[in-house]
Write a structure and sequence with these properties.
Layout: H1 6-16, H2 23-35, H3 38-54, E1 55-57, E2 64-66, H4 71-74, E3 79-86, H5 89-98, E4 103-107, H6 125-134, E5 139-142, H7 148-160, E6 167-170, H8 186-194
Parallel strand pairs: 3-4, 3-5, 5-6
Antiparallel strand pairs: 1-2
Helix pairs in contact: 1-2
The structure holds zinc ion.
């Protein structure tokens, strides 16, 4: 790319740092930016700037927030004795879109992953335990992902909460509604069987 200008090389390099973007895609995106109207390119730059300047983690639940507290923590209509623990803000969004939950959340900002060198102290587990200790939650729902690491994280947290007067539950899981047994994989079937409830 020796024939490219310094600015172009710089933009290619910045795009190439994004997840899932290789060198070729980075070049394609750069040429796209060069082609589009100035206003459109500036709007993208401005949106990136705004997100970095205005969005932070909620001081209570670590959801994304504009301001100190997120919209959910500020919403007086949420059920305040129910706490749902998720790994990432995007998990919270998925649960919100389901419309099935009206309590509060706590976002861990990851999961315990020893193989990646991520321990409990790198997550928001300490503030979570403090929050439960000081709060008036009746139930804490573990909604970490149904993976080995997600399960391990939920187990670690539920051990920390063992001596507190709070009911710890785990999201039910198993066969996706609308699917048929024949097409469920064996992990889903095993989960569905062990998580079975009274009919
Ligand atoms: Zn919040």
């Amino acid at each position: 790319m020796s024939e490219l200008t310094q600015s172009v090389v710089q933009l290619v390099n910045e795009f190439a740092k994004l997840p899932g973007i290789g060198k070729k895609s980075a070049e394609r995106l750069t040429y796209h930016i060069l082609r589009i109207p100035r206003g459109e390119a500036m709007a993208l730059a401005e949106a990136i700037r705004c997100v970095k300047e205005n969005v932070q983690y909620c001081r209570k639940c670590y959801n994304l927030a504009e301001g100190e507290e997120c919209a959910i923590c500020r919403d007086p209509s949420r059920q305040r004795d129910l706490l749902c623990v998720v790994e990432q803000p995007r998990d919270l969004m998925a649960l919100e879109q389901s419309g099935a939950y009206r309590g509060l959340y706590h976002v861990l900002l990851g999961r315990i992953a020893p193989l990646d060198g991520i321990g409990p102290e790198q997550l928001t587990i300490e503030p979570l335990v403090r929050r439960i200790r000081e709060g008036s939650f009746k139930e804490v729902i573990m909604a970490t992902n149904p993976t080995t690491e997600g399960d391990g994280t939920a187990l670690h947290i539920s051990n920390l909460l063992a001596d507190l007067p709070v009911h710890v539950t785990r999201l039910a899981r198993g066969i996706t509604s609308g699917s048929v047994l024949e097409f469920a994989n064996k992990e889903m079937l095993a989960d569905a069987m062990s998580g079975r409830r009274t009919f």
